[in-house]
Specification:
By secondary structure, the chain is an alpha/beta fold. It folds into 2 domains: about 190 residues, 2-enoyl-CoA Hydratase, Chain A, domain 1 (Alpha-Beta Complex), CATH 3.90.226.10; about 45 residues, Orthogonal Bundle (Lyase 2-enoyl-coa Hydratase, Chain  A, domain 2), CATH 1.10.12. It has 12 helices and 9 strands. The strands form 2 sheets. The protein has a 6-stranded mixed β-sheet with strand order 1-2-3-4-6-9, with helices on both faces. The chain has a 3-stranded mixed β-sheet with strand order 5-7-8. The longest helix is centred in the first third of the chain and has 16 residues. The protein is globular, with a radius of gyration of 19 Å. The protein starts with a strand and ends in a 10-residue tail after the last helix. Bound molecules: 4-(N,N-dimethylamino)cinnamoyl-COA. 4-(N,N-dimethylamino)cinnamoyl-COA binds next to helix 2, helix 4 and strand 5.
Length: about 260
Amino acid sequence: MENKVTINIVDDIARIEINRPEALNALNRSIVDELDELFDQIKDNNDVRLLIIGGTKNFAAGADIKQMVDCTATEAGKFLFSGTFNKLESLEIPTIAVIDGYALGGGFELALACDLRLASIEAKIGFPETGIGIMPGAGGTVRLPKLIGEGKAKELIFLGTILTGEEAEKIGMVNKAVPAEELKEEAERWAAKLIKKAPCGLAAAKRMVADADKLDKKSAIELEAERWAALFNTDDQKEGMKAHLEKRKPVYLGR
Ligand code: DAK
C-alpha cells in the first residue's frame, strides 16, 4: 500500500483524506484498498459516530486511467471499487463527502456512496466516462438517477457534462455548495450538528431510507412504523425525550 489515505479520529468523528495531489487524487488500486480497510475499521469502531471524506485540493479525479488502460475485461472486473463503495454506503453512521476541485468518475461515485455531499461552488463534478470509452461502473448509473431523477442523470452521464458545485446544488446532486474557503468550516458545522443527534435514531433513519427503496410503499411504511416503535427500546429515546422535557441537552450513548 502507498499510504495515500489518512484517517484522523477526534471526538467520535472520523476524517478520511485522500492525498495523491500529483494525480488529482485519482483512485488507484492501493488507494481503494486503503479506503476498504478504513471502512472496515470504522464499522468495527463503536466510538465513531460520523465520517467525513475529503481530499487534498481535489476530491478525486476518477479511477486511475493509467492503471486501467490495458486491462482485459477480467482484470477490470477485479478492481475493488463497487464492493468498497457499498461498504461505505452501508456504514450505520452518517457520512459526508466534502468536495473541492474535481470529483469525477469513480471519485464522484465515492461521493455518491456517502449520505451527504458538501461542495465548493467551483468544484467540478460529473461522469466523463463515455468520453473515454466506458460508462460509470461503481454505482454511478444506479445512485445518480435515484438522487436527481432518471432523465437528468441520463443527460449528465451520456453527455459527460461536468457541473460546478453551484450547478450541482441546484439539481440536488450535492446538498450544499459554498465558497471554497468556507468548505471545511461548513463541513465542521454540519458535523457539530449531526454529532449531537441520537445515534440510534440516525442509524435507524439511514437504514430505513435504504430499505424503503427495496420495498413496495405499503410494506415500507409498515416497516418504518415497526422500527420507529423499536426505538422505544433504546436508551437514546428515553434520554432524548427526558432531556427535552427537562429542558437540558441530551447525552446519548448510542444504545
Ligand atoms: N487517472 C490517472 N491520472 C490522472 C487522472 C485519472 N483519472 N486524472 C488526472 N490524472 C493525472 C494526470 O495524468 C496528470 O498527471 P501527469 O500526466 O502530470 O503525470 C495529473 O493528474 C494532472 O492532471 P492534468 O494535467 O490532466 O490536469 P488538468 O488540470 O489539465 O486536467 C482533468 C484535469 C481532471 C480535467 C484531467 O486530468 C482529466 O480529464 N482527468 C481524467 C478524468 C476522468 O476521465 N476520470 C474518470 C476516470 S474513469 C470500476 C468501476 C468504475 C471505475 C473503476 C472501477 N469497477 C467496477 C471495478 C471508475 C472509472 C473512472 O473513474
